[in-house]
Amino acid sequence: MDGLRVGFAISGSFCTFSRILREIQVLVDKGAQVIPILSFNAASIDTRFGTALELHEKLEEITGIKPMETLVEVEPIGPKALLDILVVAPCTGSTLGRIANGISDTPVTLAVKSHLRRNMPVVLGISTNDALGASMRNIALLKNTKHIFLIPLRQDDPLHKPNSLVADFSLLEKAIEAARVGIQLQPLFL
Predict the structure, then answer these.
(1) Which of 14, 82, 109, 185 is most buried by a 10 A CB count?
(2) Does any domain span residue 98?
(3) How far apart are CA 154 and CA 126, in angstroms?
(4) pLDDT digit string (tens) for 118-163?
């Protein structure tokens, strides 16, 4: 990971933020330069899991970089070749749908579009309550999209949330390494 420029785009699955922050710290500790990117919701909504200000402060503390949170800030990612790889984690069902359908109206989805214009890898860490429902078609579409890779997923609460899947974020580093050589980490469903 030493010297790897990782864009780390965070969308609003707020319950996973503490896990994501731990993984970002691991990447930084291993020498990666992590550039944080926030969706409109992640950048502005306070929840029972923490405030938007706390998220900004923690990301800047870990990475040393102020998070990108506007369309204007993320648009140059591709044209200026700012990243080696882009991670979207957590990737909500809404963000997943936008990416699958080419809609780039948020900082996260525009970052993906901008990065993909250089045919560079994007790793998605999905976290959505409708993965085995309405979002499955988007997962299937993106699974077969060039330069898009998924962190392996599992049901997080099959009894109470039977359609919910969450990426195993502990596999992030392995997913990044595989994506860098064009391989989807397997098995996809744990």
Answers:
(1) 109
(2) yes
(3) 10
(4) 999 999 999 988 888 788 899 999 999 999 999 999 998 888 888 8
